[in-house]
Specification:
There is one protein chain. Helix 6 links the parallel strand 7 and strand 8. The radius of gyration is 19 Å and the shape is globular. It contains 13 helices and 10 strands. Helices cover about 40% and strands about 15% of the residues. By secondary structure, the chain is α/β, with parallel strands linked by helices. An 8-stranded parallel sheet has the order 3-10-9-8-7-6-5-4, with helices on one face. Helix 1 crosses helix 2 and helix 4 packs across helix 5. The chain has a single domain, classed as Alpha-Beta Barrel (TIM Barrel).
Length: about 350
């Protein structure tokens, strides 16, 4: 089976499914580090060559770096060089008003060291609040890092068109924007998709399985409320509230299960395929701690959603508009229920507390 790839820019191709790294970070349940690092090789060999992480995903850059270093030592540079790493640069909220250029480049240098590579393939920039400080400082540093050969390509994350356009206007080549996009959360369709088409920007989509809610695990299950082992499940349970009632969510799962049975794939593969088929979507980021679900992940490349399937899905979505407004608008409100569960200073405070807690 051949896995789909796509070029973000000429000469830079990625797999259309990206192995996500957030689930390997702190606050997401126990992780067997040795197993997680070892299993990355299975993804690479299967054709999922692209790995997503961030400077603020505690410990994840180091894990991917250990994987790359091990592959390089055992199988040679040519195999190790097949790995594509997309990291992020997320200056702490508490530093935005006073951050210096040297601080930003120090984060890049640290990522290079952690990942054990000489050039970062894609750095996705984020600034918690564009009303604080000067986000242009960060992107200008990244542009200089490109000139020095430390960074190959620039992207942004959790920004909509309004936040990104000023940087395009000043000459930055933003190749991608990483945003939440799923059957439960279609906010990119509120203008971002058309803007991306007009500006040669591609979408890298996370949350496609809503932290695991869009899987058989939750089919025909009662509403669990909000008592979960990790913040990822809390985050996406909030999204389900925005999507509609728990029963409406269950209706969606039943439709996806029916379509999956028709094509002999899982309902999660249907959910991922739906996102991949959307305009300007380059890749879906699928969180996976280990390789045990890899065969299921690969299903997405061996079937197509037909017209009948799309109509059945749309019948549910028509009654469940989902989160409204622009990308990340709900999460940007630090006093709102979506914003309060986030940690804003993980670069300098790995044990940063969730707002409103302790």
């Amino acid at each position: 089976m051949s896995l789909d790839t796509i070029q973000l820019r000429p000469g830079y191709a990625i797999s259309r499914v990206i192995k996500g790294g957030w689930q390997l970070a702190g606050d997401h349940g126990p992780v067997e580090r040795t197993d997680a690092v070892r299993d990355m090789e299975a993804f690479l060999d299967a054709g999922i060559t692209t790995f997503d992480c961030a400077d603020i995903y505690v410990g994840v850059e180091e894990m991917i770096g250990d994987f790359i270093g091990d592959i390089r030592a055992r199988r040679g540079a040519a195999v190790a060089n097949r790995v594509r790493v997309h990291t992020k640069l997320v200056p702490d909220l508490g530093l935005l008003e006073n951050i210096q250029a040297k601080d930003v480049e120090a984060i890049i240098d640290r990522s290079l060291k952690r990942l054990q590579i000489e050039q970062l393939h894609l750095v996705q920039f984020f600034w918690w609040d564009v009303s604080l400080g000067n986000p242009q400082v960060g992107l200008e540093v990244l542009k200089r890092c490109q000139e020095k050969g430390k960074v190959a390509h620039l992207g942004v994350t959790n920004w909509d068109a309004a936040e990104t356009q000023p940087f395009l206007d000043t000459g930055f080549d933003v190749v991608s924007t990483q945003v939440q996009y799923s059957l439960l959360d279609r906010r990119p369709e509120n203008g971002l998709t058309n803007w991306a088409l007009a500006n040669d920007v591609q979408l890298l989509c996370y949350g496609t399985l809503a932290g695991g809610f869009l899987t058989e695990r939750w089919l025909d299950q009662p509403d669990p409320g909000f008592e979960f082992e990790n913040r990822s499940l809390i985050k996406y349970r909030l999204i389900i509230d925005e999507f509609g009632s728990w029963e409406t969510f269950q209706r969606l799962l039943r439709v996806l299960k029916s379509i999956g049975d028709k094509h002999s794939v899982s309902l999660s593969s249907v959910a991922t395929r739906w996102v991949l088929d959307k305009p300007r979507v380059a890749a879906a980021i699928v969180g996976a701690r280990y390789a045990r679900h890899l065969p299921q992940t690969l299903e997405v490349f061996r079937f197509a959603i037909d017209g009948e399937d799309k109509a059945a899905i749309q019948a549910v979505l028509a009654a469940a508009p989902g989160p409204q407004g622009s990308v990340f608008a709900l999460e940007r409100d630090r006093n709102g229920r979506h914003g309060r569960i986030m940690k804003y200073n993980l670069n300098t405070k790995p044990d940063d507390k969730v707002l409103g807690s302790g």
